[in-house]
Amino acid sequence: MTKQDDPSASQTPATPPGPRSGHPRVPEQAPGGEPESSPGEPKGAPGGEPGDTAPLRVSTLELFFDLVFAFTLTRLTTLLARHLSVTGAIQVVLVFGVLWWMYGAYAWLTNTRTPDRTPERLLLLLGMAGFLVAGLAIPEGSGPTGSASGVALGLGYLLVVVVHSVLYYRVNRNILRVTPFNVTSALLVIGAGLTGGVAAYLLWAAALAIQVLSPLIVHPGGRFYIQPAHFVERHGALVIVALGESVAALGIAAAAHGVTFAVALTAVLGLALSASLWWVYFGGGDDERAERAMAAAEPTARPGLALAGYFYAHIPMLLGVVVMAAGVKLTIGHAAQPHPAAAIALACGVALFLGGDAWFRRVLRIGRARPRAVAAVAALATAALGATVAVEAQMAVLVAGIAAMLCAEHYRARRAGPLPQHAGE
């Protein structure tokens, strides 16, 4: 289709047109249709060649990338199931935080330009290899004892950082302001692999702090452009993949015990719990409202919304999937009996997801956050049921509680009529 034939050719990137297909992205247009004149606006590739494309749809290569990143979540689930303790939880939070930062960095990268050229695709595959190596090294490489796995994790992460910087430099040279923070973080992770004990935890914490605090030093507003439709779709796809990986981890654990009635019941309840979390995120149209909220925001305000809503607020949601999956995995083989560790993991996992979703709704002002926050507190209370009666009973109560919350929200919405554009509490 030529530009003359494409009805989206006259649209601005801020309001994605009908079918989400890429189109030439030169020059950047302000919402009113005039070229952006802000000196901080992102530049195209060196030389400003017109081949740069602004993605309006998530590519299959990006979905492939998400599958590799989701493998790291599966490994974190394994780590937590093996070491369900305060120390294990700290390891999971530190490793996830560092890896999640660079996943977000790649999401911003591909949101700027579709990787449709062979060199870009090959480099993106190389970045995926870095995530794969880091994921393989997670259980042993993230512990308090220095090891070759720890160094391998750090080197894989350094590869992720370097590839990202090279790719981003081709479309926006402002990445050079951020690269030193990312490289320093990767070197600290390598250092953690070379050391052990408390020093390793401190190095991991420093690596995470450098990244999370870097936007306070290099504010992204005006330097990076966000395509709302692609950005929302990309993160929604990751949530789906993460939930799918949790079901896959459950299936693998169940198969190892042999399929009995008790194992099948636990597996089905685990699937129902994952499905209920899917319904929380997607079933009410929050993703569509989030896209509209992002598109309605000023272009210079979108990076801040992206950080608050899709980086920080998604941390408890994805960690919740990891923790919940660890709890279900521990339940396999312990049918119809209390299991305090699994009960705590299930309660905390669901509470984290619901709390993160409430945070997400509040940041983007796309719906009422209070019911989700209340449901998160109620989810924590179910730990007593799993610890004293049976984990299967706890899982059934969690599913029923989420369903009741969603039904109450739907009933209230029908009585109150459509929510305003910004109706968050």
Question: Any overview of this molecule?
Answer:
This protein is 69% helix and 1% strand. The protein contains 15 helices and two strands. The protein is globular. The chain has a two-stranded antiparallel ribbon. By secondary structure, it is an all-alpha fold. The N and C termini lie far apart (44 Å). The chain folds into two domains: 54-217, no CATH class; 228-416, I/LWEQ domain, CATH 1.20.1410.
Attribute tags:
disordered C terminus, mainly alpha, 425 residues
What would a concise description of this structure say?
This protein has 425 residues and is mainly α. The protein is 69% helix and 1% strand. It folds into two domains: 54-217, no CATH class; 228-416, Up-down Bundle (I/LWEQ domain), CATH 1.20.1410.
CATH fold category name of the largest domain: I/LWEQ domain
Radius of gyration, in angstroms, nearest whole number: 22 Å
What proportion strand? under 5%
Number of helices: 15
Q: Helices and strands, in N-to-C order?
A: EEHHHHHHHHHHHHHHH
Query: Given this structure, which CATH class of the largest domain is correct?
Result: Mainly Alpha
Percent range of helical residues: 55-70%
Low-confidence stretches: 1-52, 421-425
Strand order of the largest sheet: 1-2
| CA-CA gap between termini | 44 Å
Structural class: mainly alpha
Shape: globular
Estimate the mean pLDDT confidence.
Answer: 84
- Number of strand elements: 2
Q: Sheet bearing the most strands, described?
A: 2 strands, antiparallel
